């Protein structure tokens, strides 16, 4: 499924949110302005497709960082599980717990039974939704989208 969520469109300001990180600090999306942000809403830690998706981002980390992209993963799992999963998979980016589902809901990717519909949002440097992918986009596709945005500046 590659369609866009019903409640959020390209060109809209991304809904702002704050969420606790597993280390107790708070992540504020608003403080990411000036950077490209990749929000990865995924159903669950330790599931084969989710693990593959997040590890592909890890494996291309140098390219992602060189493109100036901040990556954040989100799902309803508790911080303790995120910490274990992130440690085992050696993810270099934070995983946020959206236990209430309110963040996923505001982005139009909360699925049935409280899980997330696999959706990736690319936000531009101003916090505007530049691209939405349902499913698991290739890292090359993400990087190409950022290059296109950079060329427009």
Q: Can you describe what's shown?
A:
Helix content is 31%, strand content 22%. With 153 residues, it is α/β, with parallel strands linked by helices. It has a single domain (18-152), classed as Glutaredoxin, CATH 3.40.30. The strands form two sheets. The chain has a five-stranded mixed beta sheet with strand order 5-4-3-6-7. It has a two-stranded antiparallel sheet with strand order 1-2. A hairpin with a 5-residue loop joins β6 (119-123) and β7 (129-134). The protein is globular, with a radius of gyration of 14 Å. Residues 1-5 have low confidence and may be disordered.
How do the strands and helices of this protein lay out in sequence?
Elements: E1 18-20, E2 26-28, E3 36-41, H1 48-59, H2 61-66, E4 69-75, H3 79-89, E5 95-97, H4 102-106, E6 119-123, E7 129-134, H5 139-152
- CATH-assigned fold name: Glutaredoxin
Structural class: alpha/beta
Tell me roughly what share of residues is in helical segments. Answer: 25-40%
Number of strands: 7
CATH superfamily, called what?
A: Glutaredoxin
**Going across the major beta sheet, what is the strand order?**
5-4-3-6-7
Please, what is the average pLDDT? 92
Q: SSE order, as H and E? A: EEEHHEHEHEEH
Shape: globular
CATH architecture verdict:
3-Layer(aba) Sandwich
Please report the first level of CATH classification, the CATH class: Alpha Beta
Radius of gyration: 14 Å
Intertermini distance: 31 Å
Query: What ranges have pLDDT less than 50 throughout 5 or more consecutive residues?
Result: 1-5
Supply the number of structural domains: 1
Give a short account of the largest sheet. 5 strands, mixed
What is the count of helical runs? 5
Beta-strand share of residues: 15-25%
